[in-house]
Specification:
This protein folds into two domains: 78 residues, no CATH class; 116 residues, Glucose Permease (Domain IIA) (Distorted Sandwich). The chain is α+β, with helices and mostly antiparallel strands. The protein is built from four helices and twelve strands; from the N terminus they run H-H-H-H-E-E-E-E-E-E-E-E-E-E-E-E. The strands form two sheets. Strands 1, 4, 5, 6, 7, 8, 9, 10, 11 and 12 form a ten-stranded antiparallel β-sheet that branches. The protein has a two-stranded antiparallel sheet with strand order 2-3. The structure holds zinc ion.
Length: 215
């Protein structure tokens, strides 16, 4: 970070020793231009130990501009000044033609006729269509369940999890790192199912979400 030998002596071991300060300041000036923004900030922070008022002022200005810059970056990133990291992007887990046959929420069960809470979306598509991870993440569970059929669970950054059910075949294993172009299974009709479809659920920090809100 500190490229000049003379400066590193001043900063590293002798904060109270101001010998050569004028020199180092003079020498530092032409060097400030090629420095990165953060390196520049640290550079100013280093100067703070000296009793010279001008560098202190520069430090305050730098911090002010840093806050301004990061606030602007936040706004640009997602139109929300509160949270810094942009939300992870999800894509539809099928590349083949599909039809949504059951939405998220209260629906009437096609087999029992009773109203119940549907925890995801059903995508009807051709049997054995490739099923892809909806976003980057890690496979944390695979298995078979009487009602869900063959299923895969993927954990994503920012507390998200996605579940893919009724698969004919599972083509991934626990621990696999996946991205949105990783095939994780083949679409099927296993479990409580009336035809070939993919049941897809999204959770965030354990709470089920309408998948339509994350695409
Ligand atoms: Zn379903």
């Amino acid at each position: 970070m500190v490229t000049n030998g003379q400066q590193s002596l001043v900063f590293a071991g002798h904060p109270a020793d101001t010998r050569g300060r004028a020199d180092s300041e003079k020498n530092a000036r032409p060097e400030r231009k090629p420095m990165g923004f953060l390196t520049g900030l640290m550079h100013h922070a280093g100067w703070h130990v000296s009793q010279n008022k001008e560098p202190k002022m520069r430090k305050i200005k730098s911090v002010f501009f840093a806050i301004l810059l990061f606030s602007a970056m936040d706004l640009y990133a997602e139109g929300n000044p509160v949270s810094a990291a942009p939300e992870i992007a999800f894509t539809i887990p099928l590349h083949a033609k599909y039809k949504i046959t059951a939405e998220f929420g209260e629906i009437r069960h096609p087999l029992s006729g009773k109203t119940y809470f549907h925890s995801g979306i059903d995508f009807a598509a051709k049997l054995e269509s490739d099923v892809y991870a909806a976003a980057r993440g890690t496979v944390i569970a695979t298995g078979f369940d009487k009602s869900d059929g063959n299923f895969v669970v993927i954990s994503h950054p920012q507390g998200y999890q996605t579940v893919y059910s009724s698969l004919k075949t599972i083509t991934c294993k626990v621990g696999d790192k996946v991205s949105s172009d990783s095939r994780i299974g083949l679409l099927g009709s296993t479990g409580m199912s009336t035809g070939p479809h993919l049941h897809f659920s999204v959770y965030k920090n354990g709470e089920v979400l309408d998948p339509q809100t994350v695409f």
